[in-house]
Amino acid sequence: MSDPMDVLLDRSAPHLADRGSGRDAALAQMVHDARDTARPQKRPRRRIALLSGALAVVLMGGAGIATANSDWPWGQGLENPDRSYTYTSPTWGQCEIRYSGFETHNPLIQADVNRVIDEWFANTDVEAAADPYAAKHLAQIEADQKAAADPDPDPRLADLNAWQAHDQALSTALHEELKAHGYDSGAGDLAGTESRSQLHCEGEDWGGEGGE
Amino acid sequence: MTPSVEPLTRALESSASDLLAYLERRVGADDAPDLLGETMVVAWRRVKELPSDDERARMWLFGIARGTLLNHSRGQRRRWALADRIRLQVRESATAPPADEGAEVRDAIDRLEPELAELVRLVHWERLSVADAAGLLGIPASTARGRYQRAKDQLRAALRQAAALP
């Protein structure tokens, strides 16, 4: 015979709203999306779309690169999506980082350094190239924050960390490529070099801050 | 699908509904999808720690979900894009939770000491065994059994004052 108290306690569970027949499918999709979020995957379809956008500009006779594939106001020098890297952010969804050319302040290497970079972005699956470094950089960033005496309460922290980790990963992969072509940043070959990048995510939240 | 992916996919898919219910009963329908999303992301990041036994895997997931609840209680809030689909279902759901008669009992549970109250909720709302609830709370099973009996005694006394109980 069941204990009346057990029956009462069982029945005290708050009732939950009915999600309808689509809930199981939605949860199954969430499982797969979570896997993508936990370990950012390369996005070849997005890359193809970007290249198609650039091609459309050519066919239209240069009607304006900045508006050919995105309404987003990319900064000066970042309008061309050829130097682009995409990843999935924890809450901001799909993100794109664009990179400017390198200003080496050295006329002897300026053109060749940018040729190497352009060819690398054009011929390499840069997401795959950066992938081995992204998790390592993210782990380091999170470890540093965990060790900090005063944890950062910013609710955007996961997205900001992902941005930093992917930016560092792409930079690491790019500098490996430059090193293979004789430009070793670790040896000071690119000392004083300047470059810029800009991030744009589908669901970004800067809280009034700029994204560049 | 690689061998390390399939077991966690299976474990998550089989427990997702229960995890969502667990989270929803603690934080409500608005925040629960985000905590479930965070639970899943953390689980994937720690996939190498997934127990091979199905029941232990399920409790491992509940443990991660409990961690997200503790973070939530400390004021951490994140919106996970991957939770959008579930969140949308919640918003579009035309079926509101039916009125239930458990409010008085829930109030009595809420008045217990927190560690007793959560033990009762885990056993009677999430249908965990006392031993599994003990594991989730990080206390010995013998301690949990003692607390559980103490919690029921206190609830019986409290509810007897409000309504006639045998």
Question: SSE layout and pairings?
Answer:
The complex is a heterodimer of chains A (212) and B (166).
Chain A: H1 4-11, H2 23-38, H3 44-59, E1 84-89, E2 93-99, H4 110-123, H5 126-147, H6 157-180, E3 197-201
Chain B: H1 5-27, H2 32-45, H3 54-73, H4 84-92, H5 103-110, H6 114-124, H7 130-137, H8 141-162
Account of the 3D structure:
The complex is a heterodimer of chains A (212) and B (166). Helix content of chain A is 47%, strand content 8%. Chain A is built from six helices and three strands. Chain A has helices spanning 4-11, 23-38, 44-59, 110-123, 126-147, 157-180, and strands spanning 84-89, 93-99, 197-201. In chain A, a hairpin with a 3-residue loop joins strand 1 (84-89) and strand 2 (93-99). The model of chain A is unreliable at 40-70 and 208-212 (pLDDT under 50). Chain B has eight helices and no strands. The model of chain B has no long low-confidence stretch (mean pLDDT 85). At the A-B interface, helix 1 and helix 2 of A face helix 1, helix 2, helix 4, helix 5 and helix 6 of B.
- SSE arrangement of chain A, N to C: HHHEEHHHE
Approximate helicity band of chain B: 55-70%
Secondary structure tally: strands of chain A: 3
Overall geometry of chain B comes to: globular
Secondary-structure element series of chain B = HHHHHHHH
**Average predicted local confidence, pLDDT of chain B:** 85
Poorly predicted residue ranges of chain A:
40-70, 208-212
Q: What is the SS-derived class of chain B?
A: mainly alpha
Distance, first to last CA of chain B: 55 Å
Span of the ends, CA to CA of chain A? 68 Å
Q: What's the overall average pLDDT of chain A, rounded?
A: 74
Write down the overall geometry of chain A: elongated
| Classification by helices and strands of chain A | mainly alpha
Query: Largest sheet of chain A, described in full?
Result: 3 strands, antiparallel
Total helical segments of chain B: 8
Query: What's the quaternary structure here?
Result: heterodimer
